[in-house]
Amino acid sequence: MRIARFSIDGNVAFGAVEGDSAPGAEGELVLDIIKGIPFADFELSGTKVPLGKVRLLPPVLPNKVVAIGRNYAEHAAELGNEVPDAPVAFFKPSTSVVGPGDPIAYPSFSQELHHEAELAVVIGRMCREVPRERVKDVILGYTCANDVTARDVQKRENQWARAKGFDSSCPLGPWIETELDPGDLAVECTVNGERRQLGRTSEMVRSVEDLIVHITEAMTLLPGDVVLTGTPAGVGPLNVGDEVAVTIEGIGTLTNKVIKRG
């Protein structure tokens, strides 16, 4: 099931996305409004609205986004880094999250903004110290993410909080796919229609299961929290006016435009 979060006539709701999401078929998509929230038992209302009549929002509003750095060997190498002995985790605050079609505001303190296409894991239930065999039980589904990074700031500051946590640095969307095997999915990023990144989740140094086990050894994850799993090689610059799109096999495409920060 594809679950979207959207607004219509000033109201916010979740809906199940129905129809063909192939390129050129977006007009066929409709949302069956969900009674309740997707983190508990819910029903479909049967009330349907065309996707074109609503504004898609970030599919969740996470309490926290836990991101993993250098989880693809070729990406680590392209920035002159070794693959770490243990996962490198950092946080992106909830205020960094924006949705499909929302602008990415180029931060005034950076001169080198980069895209990073990533598979995002959406947590479905409160969990801690999750054993490997239970990881699937705590995941609601998967969505597309762009770990937008002020690369120059990342290089000169020991902590990555400003470089990766500024407002609008975490686009998520367009929706959550709940029926998906994350083991070998194509991850692509284009800028103004030109391909920049193309990798597969099978190239990750540590799998989704590895990451959830590692993270929950230290902290509790809450329903709606998001885990970013790292980016494949090919990261590169974004400029004001660019349109950046992240496409993940089996999910869809997340598109945002870079604007000057006001």
TrEMBL record:
<dbReference type="Pfam" id="PF10370">
    <property type="entry name" value="Rv2993c-like_N"/>
</dbReference>
<dbReference type="GO" id="GO:0016787">
    <property type="term" value="F:hydrolase activity"/>
</dbReference>
<protein>
    <submittedName>
        <fullName>Fumarylacetoacetate hydrolase family protein</fullName>
    </submittedName>
</protein>
<dbReference type="InterPro" id="IPR036663">
    <property type="entry name" value="Fumarylacetoacetase_C_sf"/>
</dbReference>
<feature type="domain" description="Fumarylacetoacetase-like C-terminal">
    <location>
        <begin position="64"/>
        <end position="258"/>
    </location>
</feature>
<dbReference type="InterPro" id="IPR011234">
    <property type="entry name" value="Fumarylacetoacetase-like_C"/>
</dbReference>
<feature type="domain" description="Rv2993c-like N-terminal">
    <location>
        <begin position="1"/>
        <end position="59"/>
    </location>
</feature>
<dbReference type="Pfam" id="PF01557">
    <property type="entry name" value="FAA_hydrolase"/>
</dbReference>
<dbReference type="InterPro" id="IPR018833">
    <property type="entry name" value="Rv2993c-like_N"/>
</dbReference>
<keyword id="KW-0378">Hydrolase</keyword>
<keyword id="KW-0479">Metal-binding</keyword>
